Amino acid sequence: MEDRYxxxxxxxxxxxxxxxxxxxxxLPDEDTLYDLTELFRIFGDSTRVRILYALFTSEMCVCxxxxxxxxxxxxxxxxxxxxxxxxxxxxxxDGKTVYYSLADDHVKTIIDQGLEHVSE
Amino acid sequence: MEDRYxxxxxxxxxxxxxxxxxxxxxLPDEDTLYDLTELFRIFGDSTRVRILYALFTSEMCVCxxxxxxxxxxxxxxxxxxxxxxxxxxxxxxDGKTVYYSLADDHVKTIIDQGLEHVSE
DNA sequence: TGAACATATGAGCAATTGCTCATATGTTCA
DNA sequence: TGAACATATGAGCAATTGCTCATATGTTCA
Lengths: 120, 120
Hints:
Two copies of one chain form a homodimer. Chain A is mainly alpha-helical. Chain A has helices at 17-26, 30-42, 46-57, 62-69, 73-85, 106-118, and strands at residues 60-61, 89-94, 97-102.
C-alpha cells in the first residue's frame, strides 16, 4: 500500500523525502485543482479578458460586444458561454436581446492581482 | 478616419454606440493584455498549479518535484521554465542541483482569489 | 580531465482550443 | 401564425499546448 519507498527519480538518489511528503500534504484535492485551473484557463485568452474589461463599464448585449471587439457574434457567444460556465458573467434577457454583466467582483480582484504582477 | 459609423453587426441595428465607445476606452492596451493573459494561461494547467502548491511549502529541486507529481524530470523542467518566464518562480543552483522557489507572494494571492471564487 | 549525475532543451505527436460557417432556438410583432 | 431578428450551438479546421524521448549542458569529484 505504501509506495513512498519507490524513489524512482534520478536513479534512486537525490530525493528529499521529508520535503516531498510535506509538499504532498499541501497539494489540493483533485476537484479543487480542476475547478481552479479551469477558472484560470478562462482568464488565459485575450478575447475573454477583453470581454470582461468591456463588462467592467456596463452590461452589454452580445451584438455590441461583437462590434466592439471586431469578432463574429458566434465567437462572442461561444466565449460568453465559457465565461458563464465558470460563473464569471451572468445574463438577462430583454426581449430578443440578451445582456451580459459581471457575476460578481472576484473578476476585478483577480485581474487586478494579475495586473499588479505583470506591471512590476 | 472615424469608423464608428461602420456598424456592421446584426444587420446594422441594435448597436448601442455610447456603451460601445465607453467600453472601448476601458480596454487595456495590446501589451498589457498580452502579458496578463500569458500570466493567467500559466495558472490554467494543473501540473503548473501543483508545482506552485508544492513550492508553497518550501523550495524544491526539479527531481523532487518530478517524484512528487509522478511526471518526467523533463516535463517538470519544461513547466518550471514556463513559470520562470512569467516570473512566478525563481531558481538557485547548489552544485548539480537546482532549487526552485516562489518569486514573490503574488502567486499565493492570485491562487487564493481563484479558490475563493470556485468555492462559493 | 573524464565519469557520473542533475537539469535544460529540441523535435515530434496527440489532445485541446478558438475561430468561422451554417443553422437551430427563442422572442417580438404585424 | 410567420417573418424578422438576436442569440446559441454543432461541426470542422488551423493553431497551440503539454507531454515523452533523446540528447545537450552544466557541475562535481576522484
